Amino acid sequence: MKIAIFSIGTQGDVRPFVALGLGLQAQGHQVCIVTGDSCEQLVRRHGLDYAPLTADFLELMAKDPEVLQRGLNPVALLRTARRELLAMSADWVTQATQAANGADLLLGCGMVASLAAAIGERYDIPVVETHLQPVTPCPDIPPMMLPPPRRPRPGMVNQGLYHACRVLTWQMLSPAYRQVRQKLDLAPLPWYGPFYRRRRTHHVLYGFSPSIIPPSRYWPESVRVAGNWFLDEAQTWQAPESLEAFLAAGDKPIYVGFGSMLGDDSAALSEVFLQALRNSGRRAIFATGWGGLADVDDDNVYCLTSAPHDWLFPRVAAAIHHGGAGTTAAAARAGIPSIIMPFFGDQPFWSWRLQQLGVATRSLDRKSLNVADVEQAIESATDAALRQRAATVGAQIRAEDGVAAAIAQLSKWGYLTPVSELSPAVDRDLAEPSLAQ
Question: If you count DSSP H runs as helices and E runs as strands, how many of each does the chain have, helices first?
Fold first, then answer.
Protein backbone atom coordinates (compact mmCIF):
# COMPACT_ATOMS: atom_id res chain seq x y z
CA MET A 1 0.00 0.00 0.00
CA LYS A 2 0.99 3.60 -0.55
CA ILE A 3 0.46 5.76 2.54
CA ALA A 4 0.79 9.56 2.69
CA ILE A 5 1.26 11.16 6.11
CA PHE A 6 0.51 14.89 6.49
CA SER A 7 2.15 16.81 9.35
CA ILE A 8 3.48 20.35 9.66
CA GLY A 9 5.32 22.31 12.32
CA THR A 10 8.85 22.04 13.68
CA GLN A 11 10.92 18.85 13.65
CA GLY A 12 9.30 17.79 16.91
CA ASP A 13 5.96 17.62 15.08
CA VAL A 14 7.35 15.55 12.20
CA ARG A 15 9.82 13.15 13.82
CA PRO A 16 7.09 10.91 15.31
CA PHE A 17 5.60 10.42 11.86
CA VAL A 18 8.98 9.51 10.41
CA ALA A 19 9.16 6.82 13.13
CA LEU A 20 5.64 5.62 12.28
CA GLY A 21 6.51 5.73 8.59
CA LEU A 22 9.57 3.56 9.15
CA GLY A 23 7.42 1.03 10.98
CA LEU A 24 4.94 0.96 8.12
CA GLN A 25 7.76 0.69 5.59
CA ALA A 26 9.18 -2.30 7.48
CA GLN A 27 5.79 -3.96 6.93
CA GLY A 28 6.22 -3.54 3.17
CA HIS A 29 4.26 -0.32 2.65
CA GLN A 30 5.43 2.71 0.67
CA VAL A 31 5.34 5.82 2.85
CA CYS A 32 5.50 9.49 1.89
CA ILE A 33 5.78 12.23 4.51
CA VAL A 34 4.07 15.44 3.38
CA THR A 35 5.53 18.37 5.31
CA GLY A 36 7.49 21.64 5.18
CA ASP A 37 10.87 21.85 3.50
CA SER A 38 12.68 22.42 6.81
CA CYS A 39 12.05 18.71 7.51
CA GLU A 40 12.95 17.39 4.05
CA GLN A 41 16.43 16.23 5.04
CA LEU A 42 15.06 14.50 8.14
CA VAL A 43 12.59 12.52 6.02
CA ARG A 44 14.98 11.63 3.22
CA ARG A 45 17.81 10.73 5.61
CA HIS A 46 15.64 7.94 6.97
CA GLY A 47 14.78 6.59 3.56
CA LEU A 48 11.15 7.70 3.27
CA ASP A 49 9.56 9.54 0.35
CA TYR A 50 9.08 13.27 0.81
CA ALA A 51 6.49 15.64 -0.64
CA PRO A 52 6.53 19.40 0.02
CA LEU A 53 3.83 21.34 1.82
CA THR A 54 4.24 25.06 2.37
CA ALA A 55 4.60 25.44 6.13
CA ASP A 56 7.78 27.02 7.49
CA PHE A 57 7.17 27.72 11.16
CA LEU A 58 10.85 28.36 11.89
CA GLU A 59 10.81 31.20 9.38
CA LEU A 60 7.62 32.54 10.97
CA MET A 61 9.18 32.53 14.44
CA ALA A 62 12.36 34.13 13.09
CA LYS A 63 10.57 37.02 11.38
CA ASP A 64 8.03 37.49 14.19
CA PRO A 65 9.57 36.53 17.58
CA GLU A 66 6.53 37.97 19.32
CA VAL A 67 4.50 35.03 18.02
CA LEU A 68 6.02 33.01 20.87
CA GLN A 69 4.86 35.59 23.40
CA ARG A 70 1.35 35.30 21.98
CA GLY A 71 1.55 31.51 21.83
CA LEU A 72 0.54 31.00 25.46
CA ASN A 73 -2.62 33.04 24.88
CA PRO A 74 -4.82 31.26 22.30
CA VAL A 75 -7.03 34.32 21.76
CA ALA A 76 -4.07 36.62 21.16
CA LEU A 77 -2.56 34.08 18.75
CA LEU A 78 -5.75 33.75 16.69
CA ARG A 79 -5.27 36.71 14.35
CA THR A 80 -1.64 35.88 13.56
CA ALA A 81 -2.38 32.21 13.00
CA ARG A 82 -5.36 32.94 10.71
CA ARG A 83 -3.25 35.22 8.54
CA GLU A 84 -0.20 32.96 8.34
CA LEU A 85 -2.12 29.73 7.71
CA LEU A 86 -4.14 31.38 4.94
CA ALA A 87 -0.91 32.45 3.24
CA MET A 88 0.66 29.00 3.72
CA SER A 89 -2.38 27.23 2.28
CA ALA A 90 -2.31 28.97 -1.10
CA ASP A 91 -0.54 25.99 -2.71
CA TRP A 92 -1.83 23.22 -0.44
CA VAL A 93 -4.34 21.79 -2.92
CA THR A 94 -1.77 21.40 -5.69
CA GLN A 95 0.85 20.02 -3.30
CA ALA A 96 -1.51 17.67 -1.44
CA THR A 97 -3.09 16.38 -4.64
CA GLN A 98 0.32 15.48 -6.03
CA ALA A 99 1.40 13.86 -2.76
CA ALA A 100 -1.77 11.75 -2.55
CA ASN A 101 -1.59 10.50 -6.12
CA GLY A 102 -1.81 6.70 -5.97
CA ALA A 103 -2.26 6.67 -2.19
CA ASP A 104 -4.38 3.98 -0.53
CA LEU A 105 -4.45 5.68 2.89
CA LEU A 106 -3.95 9.20 4.21
CA LEU A 107 -2.95 10.09 7.77
CA GLY A 108 -3.50 13.72 8.76
CA CYS A 109 -2.13 15.33 11.90
CA GLY A 110 -2.96 18.52 13.73
CA MET A 111 -3.50 21.60 11.57
CA VAL A 112 -3.40 19.57 8.34
CA ALA A 113 -5.76 16.82 9.49
CA SER A 114 -8.52 18.71 7.67
CA LEU A 115 -6.36 18.93 4.54
CA ALA A 116 -5.93 15.15 4.46
CA ALA A 117 -9.67 14.82 5.13
CA ALA A 118 -10.54 17.14 2.23
CA ILE A 119 -8.26 15.27 -0.18
CA GLY A 120 -9.71 11.97 1.01
CA GLU A 121 -13.26 13.27 0.55
CA ARG A 122 -12.57 14.59 -2.94
CA TYR A 123 -10.80 11.48 -4.24
CA ASP A 124 -12.42 8.78 -2.10
CA ILE A 125 -9.25 7.81 -0.22
CA PRO A 126 -9.52 6.46 3.36
CA VAL A 127 -8.30 8.91 6.00
CA VAL A 128 -7.27 8.48 9.65
CA GLU A 129 -6.91 11.55 11.86
CA THR A 130 -3.82 11.53 14.07
CA HIS A 131 -2.62 13.78 16.89
CA LEU A 132 0.28 13.97 19.33
CA GLN A 133 -1.91 15.62 22.00
CA PRO A 134 -5.44 14.80 23.23
CA VAL A 135 -8.10 16.84 21.43
CA THR A 136 -11.19 14.61 21.74
CA PRO A 137 -13.76 16.12 24.15
CA CYS A 138 -14.09 14.37 27.50
CA PRO A 139 -14.79 15.30 31.12
CA ASP A 140 -11.59 13.91 32.63
CA ILE A 141 -8.67 15.40 30.61
CA PRO A 142 -8.38 19.21 30.54
CA PRO A 143 -8.16 20.82 27.07
CA MET A 144 -4.51 21.23 26.17
CA MET A 145 -5.18 24.58 24.44
CA LEU A 146 -6.10 26.31 27.71
CA PRO A 147 -3.96 27.10 30.77
CA PRO A 148 -3.93 23.99 32.99
CA PRO A 149 -6.33 24.08 35.94
CA ARG A 150 -5.00 24.57 39.45
CA ARG A 151 -7.60 22.08 40.68
CA PRO A 152 -9.81 19.59 38.82
CA ARG A 153 -12.76 21.15 37.01
CA PRO A 154 -16.26 19.67 37.05
CA GLY A 155 -16.60 17.22 34.18
CA MET A 156 -19.36 19.14 32.41
CA VAL A 157 -17.29 22.33 32.52
CA ASN A 158 -14.26 20.51 31.18
CA GLN A 159 -16.24 19.00 28.31
CA GLY A 160 -17.85 22.33 27.48
CA LEU A 161 -14.42 23.96 27.28
CA TYR A 162 -13.37 21.34 24.73
CA HIS A 163 -16.24 22.33 22.46
CA ALA A 164 -15.37 26.00 22.89
CA CYS A 165 -11.75 25.21 21.98
CA ARG A 166 -12.93 23.37 18.87
CA VAL A 167 -14.83 26.41 17.69
CA LEU A 168 -11.85 28.66 18.48
CA THR A 169 -9.52 26.31 16.60
CA TRP A 170 -11.80 26.32 13.59
CA GLN A 171 -11.89 30.11 13.59
CA MET A 172 -8.11 29.96 13.24
CA LEU A 173 -8.20 27.34 10.47
CA SER A 174 -11.34 28.29 8.58
CA PRO A 175 -9.92 30.94 6.19
CA ALA A 176 -7.32 28.47 4.94
CA TYR A 177 -9.79 25.61 4.60
CA ARG A 178 -12.44 27.75 2.96
CA GLN A 179 -9.86 28.32 0.23
CA VAL A 180 -8.82 24.64 0.13
CA ARG A 181 -12.34 23.29 -0.16
CA GLN A 182 -13.30 25.83 -2.80
CA LYS A 183 -10.36 24.75 -4.95
CA LEU A 184 -11.35 21.10 -4.48
CA ASP A 185 -14.96 21.80 -5.47
CA LEU A 186 -16.16 20.65 -2.04
CA ALA A 187 -19.07 22.11 -0.13
CA PRO A 188 -18.05 24.68 2.51
CA LEU A 189 -18.06 23.61 6.13
CA PRO A 190 -20.28 25.26 8.75
CA TRP A 191 -19.03 27.97 11.09
CA TYR A 192 -18.34 25.39 13.81
CA GLY A 193 -16.15 23.26 11.54
CA PRO A 194 -16.16 19.58 10.61
CA PHE A 195 -16.29 18.19 14.13
CA TYR A 196 -19.99 17.35 14.40
CA ARG A 197 -20.85 16.01 10.95
CA ARG A 198 -18.31 13.23 10.47
CA ARG A 199 -19.07 9.77 9.23
CA ARG A 200 -19.24 6.89 11.68
CA THR A 201 -16.08 5.48 10.11
CA HIS A 202 -14.04 8.49 11.29
CA HIS A 203 -11.11 7.25 13.37
CA VAL A 204 -8.61 9.11 15.55
CA LEU A 205 -5.22 7.62 16.45
CA TYR A 206 -3.12 9.24 19.17
CA GLY A 207 0.68 9.13 19.33
CA PHE A 208 1.26 9.78 23.02
CA SER A 209 2.00 7.41 25.88
CA PRO A 210 -0.91 6.02 27.92
CA SER A 211 1.53 6.05 30.84
CA ILE A 212 1.60 9.85 30.61
CA ILE A 213 -2.05 10.39 29.68
CA PRO A 214 -4.34 7.40 30.24
CA PRO A 215 -7.07 7.26 27.57
CA SER A 216 -10.36 8.77 28.66
CA ARG A 217 -12.96 6.14 29.45
CA TYR A 218 -15.47 8.42 27.74
CA TRP A 219 -13.82 8.17 24.32
CA PRO A 220 -15.57 5.93 21.77
CA GLU A 221 -14.09 2.83 20.13
CA SER A 222 -13.11 4.97 17.15
CA VAL A 223 -10.53 6.85 19.28
CA ARG A 224 -7.41 4.96 20.36
CA VAL A 225 -4.09 5.80 22.04
CA ALA A 226 -1.18 3.87 20.54
CA GLY A 227 1.76 5.26 22.51
CA ASN A 228 4.64 7.51 21.51
CA TRP A 229 6.25 7.11 18.10
CA PHE A 230 9.92 7.47 18.96
CA LEU A 231 12.46 8.07 16.19
CA ASP A 232 15.50 6.52 17.85
CA GLU A 233 18.97 7.38 16.57
CA ALA A 234 21.26 6.33 19.43
CA GLN A 235 22.58 3.32 17.53
CA THR A 236 23.66 5.36 14.49
CA TRP A 237 24.71 8.69 16.05
CA GLN A 238 28.41 9.18 16.73
CA ALA A 239 29.01 11.41 19.75
CA PRO A 240 31.97 13.82 19.58
CA GLU A 241 34.93 12.62 21.64
CA SER A 242 34.83 15.89 23.56
CA LEU A 243 31.24 15.17 24.65
CA GLU A 244 32.15 11.65 25.75
CA ALA A 245 35.07 13.07 27.74
CA PHE A 246 32.88 15.72 29.38
CA LEU A 247 30.31 13.15 30.45
CA ALA A 248 33.01 10.90 31.91
CA ALA A 249 34.70 13.73 33.82
CA GLY A 250 32.18 14.13 36.63
CA ASP A 251 28.65 13.68 37.90
CA LYS A 252 25.80 13.48 35.42
CA PRO A 253 25.12 16.99 34.09
CA ILE A 254 21.79 18.73 33.69
CA TYR A 255 20.54 19.17 30.14
CA VAL A 256 19.32 22.64 29.14
CA GLY A 257 17.72 23.04 25.72
CA PHE A 258 14.62 24.46 24.10
CA GLY A 259 14.47 22.70 20.75
CA SER A 260 13.16 24.84 17.91
CA MET A 261 12.05 27.68 20.19
CA LEU A 262 13.72 30.95 19.26
CA GLY A 263 14.47 33.17 22.23
CA ASP A 264 14.22 36.96 21.94
CA ASP A 265 17.39 37.32 24.07
CA SER A 266 19.26 34.03 24.11
CA ALA A 267 22.37 35.52 25.72
CA ALA A 268 20.44 36.83 28.73
CA LEU A 269 18.51 33.57 29.04
CA SER A 270 21.71 31.55 28.96
CA GLU A 271 23.27 33.75 31.62
CA VAL A 272 20.36 33.12 34.02
CA PHE A 273 20.72 29.36 33.68
CA LEU A 274 24.51 29.49 33.84
CA GLN A 275 24.49 31.48 37.09
CA ALA A 276 21.88 29.19 38.66
CA LEU A 277 23.92 26.13 37.73
CA ARG A 278 27.09 27.67 39.16
CA ASN A 279 25.28 28.49 42.40
CA SER A 280 23.97 24.91 42.55
CA GLY A 281 27.38 23.42 41.86
CA ARG A 282 26.02 21.47 38.88
CA ARG A 283 27.54 20.70 35.51
CA ALA A 284 25.39 21.18 32.41
CA ILE A 285 24.97 20.52 28.72
CA PHE A 286 23.56 23.45 26.73
CA ALA A 287 21.80 22.51 23.47
CA THR A 288 21.85 25.77 21.53
CA GLY A 289 19.52 24.41 18.84
CA TRP A 290 17.82 27.08 16.74
CA GLY A 291 18.86 29.93 19.01
CA GLY A 292 16.96 29.53 22.26
CA LEU A 293 20.32 29.44 24.07
CA ALA A 294 23.68 31.01 23.31
CA ASP A 295 27.11 29.38 23.59
CA VAL A 296 28.75 30.02 26.94
CA ASP A 297 32.39 29.79 28.01
CA ASP A 298 32.51 27.73 31.19
CA ASP A 299 34.49 24.61 32.05
CA ASN A 300 31.43 23.02 33.65
CA VAL A 301 29.19 23.54 30.63
CA TYR A 302 29.38 21.66 27.34
CA CYS A 303 27.67 23.37 24.39
CA LEU A 304 26.34 21.46 21.41
CA THR A 305 23.91 22.18 18.62
CA SER A 306 21.83 19.05 19.14
CA ALA A 307 22.05 15.36 19.99
CA PRO A 308 19.52 12.52 19.79
CA HIS A 309 17.45 12.53 22.96
CA ASP A 310 17.47 8.74 23.17
CA TRP A 311 21.29 8.87 23.32
CA LEU A 312 21.75 11.90 25.55
CA PHE A 313 18.92 11.86 28.08
CA PRO A 314 19.86 8.58 29.81
CA ARG A 315 23.28 10.19 30.43
CA VAL A 316 22.00 13.31 32.24
CA ALA A 317 20.52 13.86 35.71
CA ALA A 318 17.57 16.03 34.65
CA ALA A 319 16.33 18.00 31.65
CA ILE A 320 15.38 21.67 31.52
CA HIS A 321 13.31 22.11 28.37
CA HIS A 322 10.33 23.81 26.73
CA GLY A 323 7.80 21.03 27.17
CA GLY A 324 7.27 20.07 23.54
CA ALA A 325 5.44 16.78 23.11
CA GLY A 326 8.52 14.96 21.77
CA THR A 327 11.02 16.30 24.30
CA THR A 328 8.58 15.68 27.16
CA ALA A 329 8.11 12.07 26.09
CA ALA A 330 11.84 11.53 25.59
CA ALA A 331 12.69 12.84 29.07
CA ALA A 332 9.94 10.76 30.64
CA ARG A 333 11.08 7.62 28.80
CA ALA A 334 14.67 8.19 29.94
CA GLY A 335 13.42 8.17 33.53
CA ILE A 336 14.78 11.61 34.42
CA PRO A 337 13.04 14.58 36.08
CA SER A 338 11.94 17.53 33.94
CA ILE A 339 12.06 21.26 34.61
CA ILE A 340 9.84 22.87 32.01
CA MET A 341 9.76 26.47 30.83
CA PRO A 342 6.87 26.65 28.35
CA PHE A 343 7.09 28.89 25.30
CA PHE A 344 4.08 27.97 23.20
CA GLY A 345 0.88 26.05 22.55
CA ASP A 346 0.55 22.71 24.30
CA GLN A 347 3.75 23.05 26.35
CA PRO A 348 2.03 24.23 29.58
CA PHE A 349 -0.24 21.19 29.30
CA TRP A 350 2.68 18.76 29.21
CA SER A 351 4.36 20.56 32.10
CA TRP A 352 1.16 20.28 34.12
CA ARG A 353 0.79 16.60 33.29
CA LEU A 354 4.36 15.70 34.30
CA GLN A 355 3.82 17.58 37.56
CA GLN A 356 0.65 15.55 38.13
CA LEU A 357 2.71 12.38 37.63
CA GLY A 358 5.33 13.60 40.09
CA VAL A 359 8.18 13.57 37.56
CA ALA A 360 8.61 17.33 37.03
CA THR A 361 9.10 20.43 39.15
CA ARG A 362 6.90 23.50 39.02
CA SER A 363 7.09 25.29 35.68
CA LEU A 364 9.47 28.16 35.13
CA ASP A 365 7.84 31.40 33.98
CA ARG A 366 9.80 32.69 31.01
CA LYS A 367 8.61 36.27 31.43
CA SER A 368 9.69 36.55 35.07
CA LEU A 369 12.60 34.09 34.99
CA ASN A 370 15.31 34.69 37.57
CA VAL A 371 18.31 32.87 39.00
CA ALA A 372 16.63 32.03 42.32
CA ASP A 373 13.70 30.29 40.63
CA VAL A 374 16.00 28.18 38.48
CA GLU A 375 18.12 27.26 41.53
CA GLN A 376 15.01 26.14 43.39
CA ALA A 377 13.87 24.07 40.41
CA ILE A 378 17.27 22.37 40.16
CA GLU A 379 17.18 21.55 43.87
CA SER A 380 13.65 20.11 43.51
CA ALA A 381 14.66 18.03 40.50
CA THR A 382 17.35 16.28 42.53
CA ASP A 383 14.88 15.17 45.22
CA ALA A 384 15.13 11.40 45.73
CA ALA A 385 11.38 10.77 45.62
CA LEU A 386 10.97 12.70 42.38
CA ARG A 387 13.91 10.86 40.79
CA GLN A 388 12.47 7.50 41.86
CA ARG A 389 9.06 8.33 40.45
CA ALA A 390 10.67 9.45 37.18
CA ALA A 391 12.55 6.15 36.97
CA THR A 392 9.31 4.20 37.51
CA VAL A 393 7.43 6.10 34.80
CA GLY A 394 10.40 5.73 32.47
CA ALA A 395 10.34 1.96 32.84
CA GLN A 396 6.62 1.91 32.02
CA ILE A 397 7.11 3.93 28.84
CA ARG A 398 10.10 1.84 27.73
CA ALA A 399 7.87 -1.24 27.93
CA GLU A 400 5.51 0.28 25.34
CA ASP A 401 5.87 0.03 21.55
CA GLY A 402 3.76 2.84 20.13
CA VAL A 403 4.66 2.20 16.50
CA ALA A 404 3.71 -1.47 16.68
CA ALA A 405 0.50 -0.61 18.51
CA ALA A 406 -0.41 2.00 15.90
CA ILE A 407 0.12 -0.42 13.03
CA ALA A 408 -1.90 -3.08 14.83
CA GLN A 409 -4.73 -0.60 15.39
CA LEU A 410 -4.75 0.54 11.76
CA SER A 411 -4.93 -3.11 10.74
CA LYS A 412 -7.75 -3.80 13.21
CA TRP A 413 -9.72 -0.90 11.77
CA GLY A 414 -9.22 -2.42 8.29
CA TYR A 415 -7.01 0.30 6.81
CA LEU A 416 -3.90 -1.83 6.19
CA THR A 417 -3.91 -4.68 3.71
CA PRO A 418 -1.41 -7.47 4.49
CA VAL A 419 1.52 -7.24 2.08
CA SER A 420 0.85 -10.79 0.82
CA GLU A 421 -2.58 -9.65 -0.42
CA LEU A 422 -1.44 -6.50 -2.19
CA SER A 423 -1.89 -6.22 -5.93
CA PRO A 424 0.43 -4.11 -8.10
CA ALA A 425 -0.02 -0.42 -7.35
CA VAL A 426 -2.07 1.59 -9.81
CA ASP A 427 -1.68 5.36 -9.66
CA ARG A 428 -4.88 7.33 -9.60
CA ASP A 429 -5.06 10.38 -11.78
CA LEU A 430 -5.74 13.05 -9.19
CA ALA A 431 -6.05 16.04 -11.46
CA GLU A 432 -6.46 19.20 -9.44
CA PRO A 433 -10.05 20.49 -9.83
CA SER A 434 -10.45 23.78 -11.65
CA LEU A 435 -12.46 26.56 -10.06
CA ALA A 436 -13.93 27.15 -13.50
CA GLN A 437 -15.61 23.74 -13.53
Answer: 16, 12
pLDDT tens profile 189-223: 998 889 887 666 799 999 999 999 999 999 999 99
C-alpha span between 44 and 270 (Å, rounded): 33
* Residues ≥6 apart with Cβ < 8 Å to 376: none
Q: Is 225 helix (H, G, I), strand (E, B) or coil?
A: strand
Q: Give dist(CA 389, CA 380) in Å, integer.
A: 13
* Cα separations in angstroms, 54 against 10, 84, 313, 430: 13, 11, 32, 19
Tell me the CA end-to-end span of the chain in Å, nearest whole number: 31
Q: Whole-prediction pTM value?
A: 0.91
pLDDT digits (tens, 9 = 90+) for 338-397: 999 998 889 999 999 999 999 999 999 988 999 999 999 999 998 999 999 999 999 999
Structural domains of the chain sorted by starting position, each given as residue range(s) with its CATH number in brackets? 2-228+400-421 (3.40.50.2000), 241-398 (3.40.50.2000)
Dist CA 378 CA 189 (whole Å): 49
